Amino acid sequence: MATMLSRMLRLIAVVAMLITVPAPGQAAASGEQPRGVFTFGKLAEIVTATVQYDHPDAVWTRAWADTPAGAVDSVGSWHFAYRAQVGGEPATIRAEANLDGLIGLLKVVREPAAGDAALALPVVMEPGVADALLTDAGYRAPYRAVVLRRPAGFVVDDPWYVFEFGDGEQVGVDTWTGEVRSIG
C-alpha cells in the first residue's frame, strides 16, 4: 500500500510540475487551442512524462487524432505511441489523452512499433499552425485524421504533420520548415 501511494504521489508531482494552466481568457485569445486547457505540445509533455514514469526507456514515436469535423479544431483527444522494452522484450506503449490532460490507461502491445524515428520534445509546431499552412497551400477539403511522425528512412529527417484525406491522399507539413507537399 505504501509503495502504491508513493508511486501515485510521485506521478502527481510529475504532472503538477508540467501543468501550466493559462489565465482566464488566455487560451481563447492566443488562438492556439480552441478547446481544453492544454496546447498539443504541453499535452505531449504530460503524456510522455506519465509513460516514462512507468517505462523510463520509452521513446515517443507518433501522435495521431481523428478529425470528426474535418479539421484539427475538431480533435477531442490525441493518441500517442512509444517504443520501449517491457519484460526484456520490445513493445509499443499506447496512451490516449483528451485536451484537458486526462490520460486513459496505458496499453502495452507486445510487438515493437516500426517505421518511425523518435520525436523530440518540445513540439516545435502546434497542429493548428500546420492546419493553417495546409489551407494556405490550397488544401481546403476536410481531412479524416492528422498524424505527427518522423518516418524512418524518409527523405527529410524533420517531424511532419501528415493530414489524411478521404480519397487516400496524404499531405505533409514539415514542422521545422513549414513546407507543405503531397506525400501519397
Quickly describe the structure.
With 184 residues, the protein is an alpha+beta fold.
| Helix/strand/pairing category | alpha+beta
* Oligomeric state of this protein: single chain
The chain-level mean pLDDT equals: 83
Cα separation of the termini? 52 Å
* Percent in strands: 25-35%
Query: Number of domains in the coordinates?
Result: 1
Question: Using only CA atoms, what is the Rg?
Answer: 17 Å
Main sheet: strand order: 4-3-2-1-5-6-7-8
Order of helix and strand elements from N to C terminus: HHHEEEEHEEEE
Helix content: 25-40%
Main sheet specs:
8 strands, antiparallel
Quick one: overall form?
A: globular
Ranges where pLDDT stays below 50 over 5 or more residues in a row are: 2-7, 13-33
Number of E-type strands: 8
Number of helices: 4
Protein name: PepSY domain-containing protein
Signal peptide: 1-27
Keywords: Signal
